[in-house]
Each structure stands twice: as C-alpha cells, then as structure tokens.
C-alpha cells in the first residue's frame, strides 16, 4: 500500500508543478511540459519510496506489502495511470472542442445560433477555420500527413495511413459512427 | 497483492469485451453512462474472480489489502479505457486522418475534406451531444447554457487561467 500512497504524493507534485510552470511559461504546446513534470515527479516517487520506511510511518503491519518490488512497481503503475488521467482531463477540458463551445457560449452571455458559434472558430483564418488551421501543421509536423505546397493537397504519409486505418478498425470494432 | 492486480486485469478485460459486444447489439448514444453501468456491473465479477482465483496471499497481509488493490487497479483501468474510447470516438484529428484514407497518395485539398466533414456540422453535432447530456438547450434565439453547462464552462475557465492555456477557439 506504500506504493499507492507515495504515488498520490507524486501525482500531486506533478500536477502542482505543471500548473505553476504552465501559468508562468504559457507554452504553445503543453505535452512536453507535462511530460517533463511527470518525469520529474516520477523521480521524486523513486526517491520518496527509497527513503521512507516500509510502513511510511502510518500503515498498520498487515497493510505493508511483503514484496517491496511488487509494491514499488504497483505504485509506479498507479502513478502513471493517474498522471495519464489528469493529462487527459486537461486535454478534454482546457483543450476540448465541446468545452470550447461551452466557454464561447458563456463568454457571449446570450443565446447563440450554430452559425454564430461557428463564426468564433473561423475568425483569424477565414479560409480553413481554426479547427483545421492549427491541426494541419501539427499533423504535418508529426509526419502523419504531407502537404503539397503547389496544389495545397493533403495526403497521408505511411505513418498517417497506419494510424488512420487502426482508428477506422477500432471505430468499426466498437460500433462507432464517423465521430469527430 | 499480486492476486489483486491479476484479478483487476481479468475483470477489466471481461467487462470491456462485454461492453463492446453489447454496443453491437444495443448501440447507445449515452456511452459514458453505458460504460459506468458496465464498470459497476463488473464489480460483482471482480469479487467473484477474486474469490475463485486459486492464488493465496501471504498470511501476515491484511485480507483487505488484495481486494483494495484490485479495486484501485480496476477503477484506474476503467478511467484508462474511457479515455481511450473517447480518443477513438471523438477526436477531430483522428477524423481528419480517416477522411483522408480514400484519397490515397494523391491526396486532396482541405476544401474537399470540409465537404464531407464541414465545420458547422461538426459544431452542430457536438451541440446536440451537449444537449443530450444536459449542458445546453436550444430555444428561441439559439443555444443557451443550462446551469450544469454554466458550472462546467466556469470550471474550464478557471482551469484555463490556472494553466495559462487557451481554448480551441482562441488558438491562432
């Protein structure tokens, strides 16, 4: 059980570090920042686990795992799963599309028609709209699509095709619609 | 303790398979609710698997330690699966990639993708989902936040301020 307790401390550290650094640095992309914070707090997990007694000053004897390596590994997995969850919650809320709609409606302080909301995602790039405008360079940067500069044509790279086909297969396996 | 982890993995695997089989026969739009019911229905399964799995825990370990570890791992695996599910189901980026499949190596323009995946339809569909989940309602004059939607929007606004982040509408 010590692993779980230490992992909770490490998750809290990663979260506070990420929020503080995010607030100060305001990075364009948050994943590198989060990854660095999760790694740093992961190192803190290892250090705290190594430096504290098996009962971490509070656990009754029956709650101390007999195999410290299993307990350490379990705590580390719990730490990684919890870290993944809060990073995902960040992207679903702060970076989410549906939540962006809610925030825009809140800012407007009046009912909005669908086209009014769509307009807010169009400003600044009348041609593509912001939904496409910032995604396409990112997909290109990660080598998932190639952009033909002359004809402005987008095509999947091998890596992009592989991911797209896996996604399509999963959508079929889960009986999901096109989504998005 | 090891028994708890093994049991959580078995029970999670079983309910995820059951969930996906059910989605084929009784597809639902309220997927998070269906998943939550699925994971709750899986709790007795967790107990059964724990009970019947022929693995023993060390005698000096609390009898509650194994089940506690099993429940923690089960809940975390559920969260992981739900996140994975929504990436596959809802991701706009994934949808753009899937839209590009039929065009092969020749590719196509953004305008062609927008024909089959227009921005306004994308927004309308999301608003319908938000309405179904009680975050917005459509009335005369347009879409309006419900109290639940306003609380979520305010919570997101606070998180954006804390992390110094921007919404998708604010990104250049």
How would you characterize this protein structure?
The complex is a heterodimer of chains A (180) and B (172). Chain A is built from eight helices and two strands; from the N terminus they run αααααααββα. Chain A is mainly alpha-helical. A two-stranded antiparallel sheet of chain A has the order 1-2. In chain A, β1 and β2 form a beta hairpin. In chain A, α1 runs antiparallel to α2 and α2 runs antiparallel to α3. The longest helix of chain A has 26 residues. Chain A is elongated, with a radius of gyration of 22 Å. The mean pLDDT of chain A is 87. Chain B folds into two domains: 89 residues, no CATH class; 55 residues, no CATH class. In chain B, α2 runs antiparallel to α3. Chain B starts with a helix and ends in a 9-residue tail after the last helix. Chains A and B meet through α1, α3, α4, α5 and α6 of A and α1, α3, α4, β1 and α5 of B.
Radius of gyration of chain A: 22 Å
| End-to-end distance of chain A | 40 Å
* Model regions low in confidence, pLDDT < 50 over at least 5 residues of chain A: none
Our count of domains of chain B comes out at 2
Strand order of the largest sheet of chain A: 1-2
- Specify which chain pair forms the largest interface: A-B, 94 and 84 residues
The mean pLDDT of chain B is 84
* N-to-C order of helices and strands of chain B: HHHHEHHEEH
Strand order of the largest sheet of chain B: 2-3
The sequence of SSEs of chain A as H and E is HHHHHHHEEH
Termini separation of chain B comes to: 50 Å
SSE layout:
The complex is a heterodimer of chains A (180) and B (172).
Chain A: H1 2-25, H2 31-51, H3 68-93, H4 97-108, H5 114-120, H6 129-133, H7 135-141, E1 145-148, E2 153-156, H8 158-173
Antiparallel strand pairs in A: 1-2
Helix pairs in contact in A: 1-2, 1-3, 2-3
Chain B: H1 2-25, H2 31-52, H3 65-90, H4 92-100, E1 108-109, H5 110-116, H6 119-132, E2 136-139, E3 142-145, H7 147-163
Helix pairs in contact in B: 1-2, 1-3, 2-3
